[in-house]
Write a structure and sequence with these properties.
The chain is α/β, with parallel strands linked by helices. The protein is 21% helix and 23% strand. The chain contains nine helices and 18 strands. The strands form four sheets. Strands 10-11-9-12-13-14 form a six-stranded mixed β-sheet, sandwiched between helices. Strand 10 (196-202) and strand 11 (205-211) form a beta hairpin. The radius of gyration is 32 Å and the shape is elongated. The termini are far apart. The structure holds guanosine-5'-triphosphate and magnesium ion.
């Protein structure tokens, strides 16, 4: 099975919780706080692997989760960091955020490694909450929780040249004659059902050629195998348009040529503008001679035409030489240019204050709620004092006052509810 597009979900590791503990040794009732920090959650990376050719792994497994960080321990011991997860993908895999469809990365080179999701930070142990006035903090911070993210993987094969044309015109035969590829060849439509790649060597030069399933009229509306496979020639620098010039299947060669170009345009205007060389194949067959004349007249020098008989291996040498010359003049292939897209960690300081008329309470909402929930142990006075300080430092108290909150009013922050007292 050939799989070239999949949607998967990713979750980097949560941070481990910080520890609340106190030094204990013989004869000392209460030593100082010694709770260590939680470990960092595992990151998620994508890595280019030249041995992979499809996204089949992702067809059977959709969810990828990196390990959570371990919790902090006594004696200021740091929790273990969660193991990072490296996901290998074939070269040419474009990773997009499923929600915005923005490109996160284009994995183009073997071994290329891209960090997609950072693990959560570990929570701080109680040792960090010690101040000159608070000698024995009975609270620590929980680890940072990460969110599940959905991404789309799309394989866009990396090749210099793409073969296009109707089914059965001899595309795979050409590839088999000029490259090391051994594609299936047969006298019926849609013999090729997934892209074939071949390396074409010519003395010291070489290029990569892609052969994709045949297109038919209406392919851009889903006829035949559709135009999805054009994705695999999007990166090519040059197209070789193969036409069956014998007309043996009852179609007019020039009409074929126009129809394929219309389908290309239906898929992508850019791809339709890619330089094209025309191969008039099956020139050995009856009826070809006349059609070649007509075709050439219609093109009228606008495009380079190669008359070939792939089955006999004729006319292909010239084609290869021309391709190599043209490729030399073209800019080197490169990954897709895109804006940098990164999953941001939420800004934990953000909040808003709204007055809930029905319940007559002030509600503080936003990422700060999560932060406070991570830091506050409800039944612990020290911890509540710490919360008060955080609310003041982050401007929540000022905002509450600005919204009309007075002493004695009730404030709700997530699970926490308290009476406002200035
Ligand atoms: N007479 C003749 N037959 C050819 C020539 N080139 C290919 N064929 C035959 O045409 C048939 C189709 O060839 P393929 O290479 O499989 O064609 P394709 O364009 O890859 O076809 P799809 O994969 O179905 O799109 C096979 O039977 C080939 O032997 C040629 O130059 N002359
Ligand atoms: Mg084929």
């Amino acid at each position: 099975m050939f799989v070239d597009k999949e949607r998967i979900s990713l979750k980097s590791g949560d941070g481990g919780n910080g520890m609340t503990s106190f030094l204990r040794f013989k004869g000392v009732a209460n030593g100082g706080p010694d709770g260590g920090d939680g470990g960092r959650g595992g990151h998620i990376y994508f890595v280019g692997d030249r041995h992979k050719t499809t996204l089949i792994d992702f067809h059977f497994k959709h969810k990828y989760v990196a390990e959570n960080g371990g919790k902090g321990d006594t004696n200021k011991r740091h929790g273990k960091d969660g193991e990072d997860l490296y996901i290998s993908v074939p070269l040419g895999t474009v990773v997009k955020d499923a929600e915005t469809e923005k490109i996160i990365c284009d994995i183009y080179y073997d071994g290329q490694t891209h960090l997609v999701l950072e693990g959560g930070n570990g929570g701080k142990g109680n040792v960090h909450f010690c101040t000159s006035r608070r000698h024995a903090p009975h609270f620590s911070q929980t680890g940072e929780k990460t969110e599940l993210r959905r991404v789309i993987l799309e394989l866009k094969t990396i090749a210099d040249v793409g073969l296009i044309g109707f089914p059965n015109v001899g595309k795979s035969t050409i590839l088999s004659k000029v490259s090391n590829a051994k594609p299936k060849i047969a006298n019926y439509h849609f013999t090729t059902i997934s892209p074939n790649l071949g390396i074409v060597g010519y003395f010291d030069d070489s290029f990569v050629c892609a052969d994709i399933p045949g297109l038919i009229e209406g392919a851009s509306e889903g006829a035949g195998l559709g135009i999805e496979f054009l994705r695999h020639i999007e990166r090519t620098r040059l197209l070789v348009h193969v036409v069956d010039v014998s007309g043996a299947e009852g179609r007019d060669p020039y009409e074929d040529y126009k129809k394929i170009n219309a389908e290309l345009k239906g898929y992508s205007k850019e791809l339709a503008k890619r330089p094209q060389l025309i191969v008039l194949n099956k020139s050995d067959m009856y009826g070809a001679e006349e059609n070649i004349k007509i075709f050439k007249k219609k093109i009228n020098g606008r495009k380079k035409i190669f008359v070939a008989s792939a089955i006999k291996g004729e006319g292909l040498d010239d084609l290869i030489k021309t391709i190599l010359e043209m490729l030399k003049e073209m800019p080197a292939p490169a990954p897709i240019e895109h804006e940098e897209f990164k999953y941001e960690k939420v800004d934990v300081r953000k909040f808003e204050v709204v007055f809930d008329e029905e319940d007559g309470v002030y509600v503080v909402d936003g990422p700060i709620v999560k932060l406070l929930e991570r830091n506050v142990v409800l039944n612990d006075m020290d911890s509540l004092a710490y919360m008060q300080k955080t609310l003041k430092d982050y401007g929540v108290i000022a905002e509450l006052r600005r919204k009309g909150c007075k002493d004695g009013d009730t404030v709700v922050i997530g699970e926490i509810e308290f009476t406002f007292m200035d």
